[in-house]
Design goal:
Helix content of chain A: 25-40%
Shape of chain A: globular
Distance between the termini of chain B: 31 Å
Structural class of chain A: alpha+beta
Strand content of chain A: 25-35%
Radius of gyration of chain A: 16 Å
Number of helices of chain A: 6
Shape of chain B: globular
Oligomer: heterodimer
Number of strands of chain B: 8
Structural class of chain B: alpha+beta
Order of helices and strands of chain A: EEHHHEEEHEHEEH
Chain lengths: 185, 185
């Protein structure tokens, strides 16, 4: 019922369990594309019950104020995900994560969605810092924080196990004060 | 972040912890008005913790798909509350409840909000039956289901303990196939 409207074609919504089939189909159709950079995607086919459980856990996480994933709807179809991986209320920070179905690339959907999440995090949740971490070789993903004006803060070496090897992650950061200054002009 | 837009002045959203003060103030300022027909409102000076707990419990209920209460926003202010008291997924049924701050009456906010929740219940949640129960003497409240074309099904005698006495409740209901036919118009 609730959504965040980005533009006439695009909105963001929390998932409900009735969306499990559509989510499964999207992930399955984009298995190789997502798996390339996502450690969480392991099985080619996970039972639909697992997807429903995953959606339930995400709604719990949302209810408990611990972070949440939202799905991007483009022209009425589920096309990808953006989310707050966690909320650290003590240190007032969060980290954004995202993936997009391959055929929906090139429309700025992830950039626009991230912009909405960043505005919400700083303006409504009064957080102070947002991070985005990308595989060093994941050039497509790195373009998102770069386009949004994040600062490249450093490279964490061999910091993530991606299926069968360690990868280095680049850390990008944005502070509330920096975002405010950027959006004044 | 997520809302359901009814019109340029009115939208619906879940209550979040940061809304506690404004909600508590609205309830306190409308004590007599709300208490008249609401068993849940007992104290004139409602402690903020009660409202904070309500918001937490409501988010949990939402996450668990057991029902949820929504905030009615009118021109950026909290005007009242409407919600699905529960979801019975076996019987595919729900019940709506609502209250409105006295100064927000006369603008059709409850009728418009009910229409949105009923549409969502039938079209998205694929429920079959929506009920509204009103105190027999609560004429203002009874006008809502009557305006929306609900059928008056019966009067349950001494169905609810309201502060210091039992009251009778009128049951109104609409079914999915009826609603599609008349759209509450």
């Amino acid at each position: 019922m609730f959504s965040y409207k980005i533009d006439d074609d695009t909105e963001l919504r929390l998932l409900e369990t009735r969306h499990a089939e559509e989510l499964d189909a999207l992930v399955t159709a984009n298995y190789d594309h997502i798996k390339e950079w996502a450690a969480w995607l392991k099985d080619t086919e996970s039972p639909i019950e697992q997807t429903r459980e995953h959606i339930k856990r995400n709604r719990m996480q949302f209810a408990e104020g611990k972070g949440f994933n939202i799905f991007i709807w483009y022209q009425g179809k589920m096309v990808g995900k953006v989310g707050y991986n966690f909320f650290d209320w003590d240190n007032r920070q969060t980290e954004l994560g995202y993936w997009l179905g391959a055929s929906f690339q090139g429309k700025g959907l992830v950039t626009k969605s991230c912009r909405a999440l960043i505005n919400y995090a700083f303006n409504e949740l009064k957080l102070n810092r947002i991070e985005i971490r990308c595989g060093v070789e994941n050039t497509k993903s790195r373009k998102i924080p770069e386009r949004l004006g994040f600062r490249e803060e450093g490279i964490l070496r061999q910091t993530e196990w991606l299926h069968d090897h360690f990868i280095d992650l680049v850390v990008y950061g944005m502070l509330a004060s920096e975002w405010r200054d950027k959006n004044k002009s | 972040m997520f809302s359901y837009k009814i019109d340029d002045d009115t939208e619906l959203s879940l209550f979040q912890p940061r809304h506690a003060e404004e909600l508590n103030a609205l309830v306190t300022n409308n004590y007599e008005h709300i208490k008249e027909w609401s068993a849940w409102l007992k104290e004139k000076d409602r402690p903020i913790e009660n409202t904070q707990d309500f918001i937490k419990r409501n988010l949990m209920q939402f996450a668990e798909n057991k029902g949820f209460e929504i905030c009615i926003w009118y021109r950026g202010e909290i005007a009242g509350q409407i919600g699905y008291n529960y979801f019975d997924w076996n019987d595919r049924r729900t019940e709506l409840g609502y209250w409105l701050g006295a100064s927000f009456q006369g603008k059709g906010l409850i009728t418009k909000s009910c229409r949105a929740l009923i549409d969502h219940a039938f079209n998205e949640l694929k429920l079959n039956r929506v009920e509204i129960r009103c105190g027999f003497e609560n004429t203002k409240s009874r006008r809502i289901p009557e305006k929306l074309g609900f059928k008056e099904e019966g009067v349950i005698k001494q169905a609810e303990w309201l502060h210091d006495r039992f009251i009778d409740l009128v049951i109104y209901a609409t079914l999915a196939n009826e609603w599609q036919a008349n759209k509450g118009l």
